[in-house]
Write a structure and sequence with these properties.
The protein has 573 residues and is α/β, with parallel strands linked by helices. It has 2 domains: 79-375, Alpha-Beta Barrel (TIM Barrel), CATH 3.20.20; 388-572, no CATH class. The chain is built from 17 helices and 29 strands. Strands 1, 2, 3, 4, 5, 14, 15, 16 and 17 form a 9-stranded mixed beta sheet that branches. Strands 18, 19, 20, 21, 22, 23, 24, 25 and 29 form a 9-stranded mixed beta sheet that branches. Strand 2 (40-49) and strand 3 form a beta hairpin. Helix 11 (287-296) runs antiparallel to helix 12. The chain is globular and about 85 Å long.
Length: 573
């Protein structure tokens, strides 16, 4: 499959350049390059016609005065552009900013989650991804959520499935409903398979037998392996396995140690993903960082690079366009200082140098991009106010944090004073219609109040040591605008503006990374014990993670769906 088909004229020129009958647009003269097909570092001429590679080999063709001739240094090497196979482009950064950051790190293409776009934009999400495709130098393809937002909208689902920028369904979080016989979900999954799309799983801690049933349904890959044994389960059952190195699951080094030298692990069916890192982890968990970790763990250089190039291109059927340095492929590749340093010095994207000496050749007009983003992502929240009397405990079951994202229920005595590790937590509907209230344990004892519009459900999270503190911080958030606002016990305040849909910054990656880095640092200073507080805020309302969550249906147990407490309408309090 070709992402960007040639016009007839481009096709004709490509063949003419490949045969030496027409001069190339770009000539990398006698360059060292990694041949991922043979596993060798080779040296030869690389000729580019338009946006594609026309020729790779020893023969020297005539150039023209318009040919850009590049002679790299002897130590430098050309490698295929990297592919991020599993991205979440709305993690406080916006999709455009995500693409800029990825291209700087040599990732020429990412496969992206459309769930946030569906929640924020609805049917306008299609026009957004089309405009993004036109203005971004990074290439975006998308997966189509089919088990959450689009559950009741078969027409919208079919529209996404037919779109040329959509190549996958997923990530499939509600698989347990399928195994329990959910007919509607089965039919939607059948639509995906009939459209000949890949389906990505979400299978953390799932048994071999259940993965077998899910594989039978057509799920082709999964990114939730927690150890080498999990990887082997997936490979045995015919799935591809993406090894994850994310800000909340930095498992890659341990997984690599577990599979090193074991012949059962077919690395041709393994990929690498950062799974949507927080902004301040985007470099630490970049594809270059992952490739380097693989080499340090004992994988050969070619094995490590294949995990981020040829393997995802093969899995997604994009091998005619990407994955290697060969004729007919898109001229999307990286120039490295050496094979041991995967972070690129130069990046060519579709025949144009976008990064040179690690600097953007054509930096975006940030003000214009921000203006464009604001036309799509408007504040979805209806500002509402609360008074302490409206915040009343509902039962005696609270949420205890096990780590950044995993929770468990615990019991407290309603009406009793908070313990040192406890805070009140309220979920306020984005339309201001209802609230849900309980306690949270193990969050951050030095935080007197926190308000966040950044949540998986799009509702506002309010956490505080007193009902009055919750009301006060909500009022200030209404005045400042959407984002994250924190009051610390020492009187310090911290505000992170997220004006795009209440969940994303309009700034560049450096700006949002510095803000989130400071937020994480301050939170840890004030009692937060885990790695990434932003993900804790995001996932307290996520329906696919164990064990107890808050949502529009109430405080409930994920495993069996039991509702412990229901939301209360504000006009009834």
């Amino acid at each position: 499959m070709r992402i960007y088909p040639c016009t007839l004229e481009e096709y004709r020129d490509l063949i003419a350049v490949s045969l030496g009958r027409k001069p190339p647009d770009v000539w990398l003269k006698n360059a060292a390059y990694l041949n991922v097909y043979t596993g060798q570092v080779e040296r030869g001429h690389i000729y580019v016609s338009g946006n594609r590679i026309a020729y790779v080999g020893d023969k020297e063709f005539a150039a023209s005065p318009n040919t850009q001739i590049i002679e790299l240094e002897q130590r430098q090497i050309v490698v295929p552009g990297y592919i991020e196979p599993h991205a979440h482009p709305c993690q406080m950064y916006n999709p455009f900013t995500w693409g800029v950051s990825q291209l700087r790190q040599g990732a020429v293409l990412s496969i992206n989650d459309n769930l946030s776009l569906l929640m924020l934009l609805g049917e306008r999400a299609i026009s957004f991804i089309e405009e993004l495709d036109r203005i971004s130098s990074h290439m975006f393809l998308w997966w189509c959520n089919f088990d959450q937002v689009q559950a009741g909208d078969r027409h919208l689902l079919k529209t996404w499935l037919a779109h040329p920028l959509v190549i996958q369904g997923g990530e499939f979080t509600e698989w347990f409903q399928l195994l329990q016989g959910d007919e509607e979900l089965l039919e939607r999954l059948y639509l995906l398979k009939s459209a000949r799309l890949r389906v990505e799983g979400h299978l953390p801690g799932v048994s071999y037998e259940k993965i077998s049933g899910i594989a039978a349904a057509g799920i082709g890959a999964d990114h939730e392996s927690l150890n080498a044994e999990d990887v082997l389960k997936r490979l045995k059952l015919g799935l591809y396995a993406s090894l994850r190195y994310s800000s909340i699951r930095p498992d890659l080094p341990d997984i690599l140690a577990g599979l090193a030298g074991d012949p059962r692990f077919n690395l041709n069916r393994v990929m690498l993903t950062s799974d949507g890192p927080s902004p301040h982890f985007t470099e630490e968990h970049s594809i270059p960082a992952m490739i380097k970790l693989c080499m340090e763990a004992g994988l050969s250089a070619v094995e490590a690079y294949r995990l981020a190039t040829l393997n995802p291109a093969t899995y997604y059927g994009l091998y005619e366009d990407l994955g290697g340095i060969a004729p007919g492929r898109l001229a999307s590749f990286n120039v490295l200082d050496s094979l041991n340093e995967p972070a690129p010095l130069h990046v060519m994207q579709q025949g144009t140098w976008r990064i040179w000496n690690r600097e953007d050749m054509q930096p975006a007009d940030e003000a214009a991009i921000a203006s464009w983003l604001h036309t799509y992502f408007r504040p979805p929240r209806v500002p509402a106010e609360l008074v302490p009397e409206q915040i009343r405990e509902q039962g005696s079951t609270g949420i205890e944090l096990v780590n950044d994202v995993i929770t468990k229920p615990y019991e407290f005595i309603a009406g009793e004073p908070l313990e040192d590790e406890e805070s009140f937590i309220t979920l306020l509907d984005s339309k201001g219609n209802w609230t849900l209230h309980t306690r949270i344990k193990g969050f951050a004892s030095g935080v007197t109040a926190l308000a966040s519009t950044y949540s998986a459900s799009g509702d506002t999270l309010l956490i505080g040591r007193s009902e009055k503190g919750i009301c006060d911080i909500l009022q200030e958030l209404n005045e400042r605008g959407d984002g994250i606002l924190v009051y610390f016990i020492n009187g310090e305040k911290l505000h992170i503006p997220l004006p795009l849909g209440g969940t994303m910054s309009a700034g560049n990656m450096k700006e949002i990374s510095e803000s989130l880095g400071l937020f994480a640092f301050r939170m840890k200073q004030h009692g937060y014990r885990f790695r990434d507080p932003a993900y804790t805020l995001l996932f307290l309302t996520a329906s696919h993670l164990p064990n107890i969550r808050m949502s529009a249906k109430g405080l409930y147990l994920v495993k069996n769906g039991h509702v412990i407490a229901s939301p209360v309408r504000l006009d009834t309090r």
